[in-house]
Amino acid sequence: MSLENPVEIVPGSRVILHFALSLSDGTEVVSTFSDEPLTCTLGDGTLRPGMELALYGLKSGDTQSLTLEPEQAYGLHDSSLIHQVERGLFPDSLLPAEGQIISFSLPNGQETLGAVLELEENSLTIDFNHPLAGRQVVFRVEILEVAPAATQ
Predict the structure, then answer these.
(1) Cβ-count burial of 14 within 10 angstroms (0-12 exposed, 13-18 middle, 19+ buried)?
(2) pLDDT given at position 4
(3) What CATH number is given to the structural domain containing 22?
(4) Against a cut of 0.85, is the pTM above it?
(5) Of 26, 100, 110, 146, whose CB neighbour count within 10 A is largest?
């Protein structure tokens, strides 16, 4: 790869990057800038589709910061993902609290997380939306390395 013609990020590119996600009020949610960079292949599901779109055309050394709407990031908040769960389904050793994040096993064997919204005598109200659903996020990236997409 020559310096005069650096590789642009396209679907299928292997990218090494630093990124940060922040709320619109500046609260940082996650960042790799003081840690190991992220390595991914665009299209492999590591990044949300809207975040991948924001990378297209960037090259090694480029930086970018942009605000993503909920639909571009973690989706809109879906009230159908809020459920009442019987307290008896939890082990006696678990003492849930409002705001607590609990891991749940799905019937297909996968794991999902839910946030406790409300405690009632016989049930818990659990929100299974992503914690950033319905929120604008600021997506900041620094591209460290780009490898061309593999050809078929």
Answers:
(1) middle
(2) 61
(3) 3.10.50.40
(4) no
(5) 146
Amino acid residing at 105: S
End-to-end CA separation in angstroms for the chain: 20
Question: If we measure between CA atoms, which residue out of 38, 31, 4 comes closest to residue 139?
Answer: 31
Residue 3 lies in a domain: no
106, two tokens: 């799905």
pLDDT of residue 1: 47
Q: Is residue 7 part of a domain?
A: no
pLDDT range class, residue 91, cuts 50, 70, 90 = confident
- Estimate to the nearest angstrom the gap between the alpha carbon of 77 and the chain centroid: 14
Structural domain boundaries enclosing 64 = 14-75+132-147
- What token pair was written down for 2? 């020559």
Q: Which two tokens stand for residue 72?
A: 């571009």
Specify whether the CB–CB gap between 119 and 97 falls below 8 A: yes
